[in-house]
Amino acid sequence: RSDEQRLLITGGAGFIGAAVVRRVLSDGHAVCTYDKLTYAADRDFVAEVAQHPRHLFVQGDVCDPVLVASTIASFRPTAILHLAAESHVDRSIDGPAAFVQTNVVGTQVMLDAALAYWRDLPAAQKTGFRFHHISTDEVFGSVEAPDRFHPDTPYDPSSPYSASKAASDLLVRAWHRTYGLPIVLSNCSNNYGPRQFPEKLIPLMIIKALREEPLPVYGDGGNVRDWLHVEDHVDALLAVLTRGKIGATYLIGGGTEMTNLDLVGRICDLVDAKAPSENGARRRLISFVEDRPGHDRRYAIDASATERDLGWKPARAFDAALDELVDWYLARRAWWEAILAERYDAKRIGKAAA
Ligand code: NAD
């Protein structure tokens, strides 16, 4: 097909990356997933796509310039989507080095390799090529109501995770301004959906509620987050990739601001309705724990420019999608129980993560 893309997707075995890979494969494109397979990767997914005729899997580190360059040279992508990252804030507080390495150094390695490849492309392919960097709204730090983040909000990251992502965003812009690499950048709010690693807030709370374990909520539970379904994020990423302006930044959010306490309460009610407990309502399990250091109070995205310029809008309603997600975790006990048994860091069992 003439519109077939060849997409190199770093971090394609992770929560969001795997959703992107599934989608673009079903849209008929060719994909190379480049992923180190850290604890966060979905190995079932890698096994699932291993036999796909338009999919190539390369296990590799984004910090490895030789393997990155040879993978790009042999796959010959029409675009690179860079999602590989260390992504969990609590882990970044306990051990920031891996975050600086993967998120900052790894992004520089990807940019250098993309630039060398792009410079040598024939003119016709050169104009179509994009390096799409996938980032987070956490780079902006906390914002007080009623303000929201705009593309020109100054960066003010609070955690080692968000600081490393902020650094990576700035490198991406520098490679555009200095070397002319055709980049697009997107910053998205918190994602939720099936197959998210169970250390993140929503899966953690669903699983703990099902197991009737204490539900640890940081501080007073009043921290506000904006939630977006991962499939809506995928829609937005494909809109940015195909219709975004070179050099531009797009903010992506769900317009679903709520406090962590409100969210955990909703999860309790859903789990009660689907798996009633003899011991009473799950809300009894909510337990407030010492706040995370540097915990941003509120994230809120103004995605109106993205909606206007790219014609994208979140399509999924939060409550209905959360209801479906609880069903998903109920039906996939074996999936998450295997992760808890094999790859879950028990130290983190007491922590709430958003
Ligand atoms: P994830 O932790 O689920 O997956 C990350 C993937 O990257 C894993 O498959 C892992 O094996 C891979 N990886 C890690 N280090 C690597 C390295 N050195 N080399 C190659 N691969 C490596 O993360 P996610 O939630 O899917 O997030 C993907 C991207 O989206 C990240 O860049 C993150 O900053 C960004 N993001 C996430 C959210 C969210 O709510 N999850 C929101 C906005 C932006």
Written account of the structure:
This protein is 44% helix and 16% strand. By secondary structure, it is α/β, with parallel strands linked by helices. It has two domains: 6-193 and 227-252, Rossmann fold (3-Layer(aba) Sandwich), CATH 3.40.50.720; 201-224 and 257-294 and 316-350, UDP-galactose 4-epimerase, domain 1, CATH 3.90.25.10. A seven-stranded parallel β-sheet has the order 3-2-1-4-5-6-10, sandwiched between helices. α2 links the parallel β2 and β3. α3 (65-75) packs parallel to α5. The longest helix has 23 residues, at 97-119. The protein is globular and about 65 Å long. The N and C termini lie far apart (42 Å). The model is unreliable at 349-354 (pLDDT under 50). Residues 10-11, 13-17, 35-38, 40-41, 61-63, 83-87, 102, 106, 134-136, 165, 188, 190-191, 197 line the site of nicotinamide-adenine-dinucleotide (NAD).
